[in-house]
Amino acid sequence: MLDRGGADGSADRIVALCIRIDGYLILGFSAPGGPRVNDQQFFAQDLAEVLITRVTRPLYRSLIEVWDDKPYPERVDVEVLQTLQRVPGWRPGPAVMRALRLSGTKQGAPIAGEPMAKMAFEDGTDGD
Hints:
Elements: H1 11-18, E1 24-29, H2 39-43, E2 46-61, E3 74-88, H3 93-105, H4 119-123
Antiparallel strand pairs: 1-2, 2-3
């Protein structure tokens, strides 16, 4: 459930409800210091893995178990377009890194990002 930090009208839920087919989700994994550090410390880290995905089905509910720890009835379906390993924090740029850090402090809740952030991974420049 997207109840991290608010009721159904929370910012997390509003962002989740705005996810549309053909939109992009950027998922980052395993920053050594974790997300609970200041921006500068987080930006200086490498992400172990980054997935660039395209949404194939917007937010929906399902009772099918995905992970063992607890039910996650609300989800989106995505197609993985690109998997990047050991991504330096400068590559996605401050806006993307800030969104990934904030998402990480909210158990992966979606954070609205810059519309052109995906370009940072295509041409190697930063996202700002």
